[in-house]
Design a protein that fits this description.
By secondary structure, this protein is α/β, with parallel strands linked by helices. It has one domain: TIM Barrel, CATH 3.20.20.70. The chain is 43% helix and 15% strand. The radius of gyration is 17 Å and the shape is globular. The structure holds phosphoenolpyruvate.
């Protein structure tokens, strides 16, 4: 099986959109340097708000020398069209210009609060890959769906909407399983719950292509903290974490990396 380097991505949501974003990035880079984690321990991604993307990307670039880990910048969303009359929107070429390498697609907050659909998520996944941005595509069930025994059905439908698109460049994209009931709530899926869904996603990908299954990183997200990260990251099919609240402070984000 292909060795998958763990990916730890911090989703800053609508926080740290200015100077404090650069300060946070500096603190994370400093912490990574002093932790001196060997190459291949993890790939690190930070996803600031749009307003801080270029500044954080430049900050990371300046602080990169000598670091053994890859540290890259992600956006949290984008518009699938490259340009046009879409007031208030930001496109993939603009993100690349700002120093982004990744983009989060279909986060549950976007699905729930901004009406994003499976079809829209697929459209963005294709647009990101076509433009050369690496997608982290989010899926996950609500509490009601979990309690109704529909978790695997919902996740399979969400993954099915975009999975074949990842064949365009296997390993470039990642999938984040984020149970909606665990996001920002402090309720975390136990390692067995996370592993069950990750294994189901992996086998769904294997149904498309074995290479896709073994080459795609599956991240867990939902109240990941330094004290629960080790158990989750030890699961066979968990290849990293998408971290919200705990990515807003260098110490807790670094604590998750140290749990690897
Ligand atoms: C997220 O926003 O993707 C997330 C997982 O948030 P939190 O870690 O705060 O639950």
């Amino acid at each position: 099986m292909t060795k998958r380097v763990p990916l730890i991505a911090g989703n800053w949501k609508m926080f740290h959109g200015g100077r404090t974003g650069c300060d946070l990035a500096i603190d994370i880079m400093r912490g990574l340097r002093s932790a001196d984690l060997p190459a291949g321990t993890a790939d690190v991604v930070m996803a600031p708000p749009f307003t801080a993307l270029a500044a954080v990307a430049a900050t990371v670039e300046e602080a990169r020398a000598g670091l053994k880990l890859s540290v890259e910048i992600s956006a949290q969303n984008f518009h699938a069209k490259a340009e046009g009359a879409f007031t208030g929107e930001v496109s993939a070429p603009m993100l690349l210009d700002a120093g982004c390498k990744w983009v989060i697609i279909g986060h549950s907050e976007r699905r729930q609060l901004f009406g994003e659909t499976d079809a829209g998520v697929a459209e963005k996944t294709k647009a990101a890959l076509d433009a050369g941005l690496r997608p982290i595509v989010c899926v996950g069930e609500t509490l009601e769906e979990r309690e109704g025994g529909k978790t695997l059905e919902v996740v399979e439908r969400q993954v099915g909407a975009f999975a074949k698109l990842l064949l365009a460049d296997v390993g470039v994209g990642a999938i984040a399983y984020e149970p909606v009931w665990a996001i920002g709530t402090g309720r975390v899926a136990g390692p067995e719950q996370a592993q069950e869904v990750h294994a189901a996603i992996r086998s769904q990908l294997a149904g498309i292509s074995q290479e896709l299954a073994s080459g795609t990183r599956l991240l867990y997200g939902g109240s990941v903290k330094p004290d629960n990260a080790a158990g989750l990251l030890a699961c066979e099919d968990v290849d990293g974490a998408l971290v919200g609240g705990a990515s807003l402070k260098a110490e807790s984000f670094l604590g998750i990396l140290r749990a690897l």
